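Two records follow; treat each independently.
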Amino acid sequence: MDRLRCLLVVSVLCMAAVAVSGVRKLECSEHRDQECEISNFTIVESMDLSEYEFPDHPHLSFGTYPHSDDSTYVVTITKELADILQATEKLEIQNVSLQTMVLWNNLRILDASHNSFYELVVEPGQNYQLRELNLSYNRFQSIDFVLALPSLRTIDLRHNYLESLDMSLFSMATELWKINLANNRIQSIATDGTMYLPRLSNLLLNDNLLSVLDASEWHFNMLQELNLARNRLRYLSMCEVNHSFPHLQTVYLDENRWDCAHLNATIRQLHALSIKPMRHYDQDDEERCGRNVEGICCY
């Protein structure tokens, strides 16, 4: 009996040893010093993550971006994986075909650019600490998740699929100093009531489809740069500029559909306020359209 009991114990221990040895420990690449880079790895939604041991590292990177890496695919970051990565404060996850991701509280910097990303999942009542968010070159059509991110300081949404925008989504992020919404398909921007962003310095709206910019409810007292290039604007309200952007220094106006009379009056007022009307692009508007005010095309 004692011999049988001993054999059973040995058998159980051997099984446990096999189970432990079956766990794949993911190693950090040796060629990056300050961050843990994981490559040659695939994560899909149905995957059993219990088979893997992830590094406990504050700065994690999936893939080898900006270098080409066809060996790494992280299609989703599930709630299970988000819980595993709680120690990670900075995550770089570019160019790995990411589509969906569950956010975790301790993450402070996220660069998920150059993916097929369309859904960032946030949970109500959580104390998210995210400060820097780069979602450029993705497929977002909605950014309602921003309401849950009051600690944001910068957000980059260039080259997504936004068609309309409610600026009130940013109202809780009072530490924001830069919003980049360039190269979307934004036709209209709404605001639900008066909105204050006391630290906002840069607002980039270039390369969209705006025909009207209603800034009457905005109070961006520290805004210094406003980029409106390559839209469909015909008129800019200087009353709103004075009211909403009292410290504006530079505004980019080129490649719109400005009415020449209004543009001429607007530029005179901008000069009077020591605001520089600038061109964002190098094309010669004067040769292209025939009529211009200080090199900015008008009709």
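The next record belongs to a different protein.
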Amino acid sequence: MSSKQRELYFVFLNFDPEYERLRSDRSKRGAYELDMYLSKKHDELLARTLEPGSYNKTLSLVIVDGFAVEITLDQAKTLRSAMEVRVVEKNQELA
């Protein structure tokens, strides 16, 4: 398999006190602020780490501080080395 082929990966980030604070606010406004915070945080990480236009973030995960992104194997290795990244895992389809 070519390392240039994009596949879906899940990226989970290290502990973030701001995420925990926002997650504890169960109001509608709190949920909105958490969504906006995570989306911006994840977009900024990708923009800092990878070449623009070379990836496709498909979603931000609110229940955990993470996101799904279509990237190459080489890009996954690059993301793994980012300080704020805890885990990068390729999506595994179950038979």
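Discussion point: The two ends are 20 Å apart (CA to CA). How would you locate this feature using only the token line?
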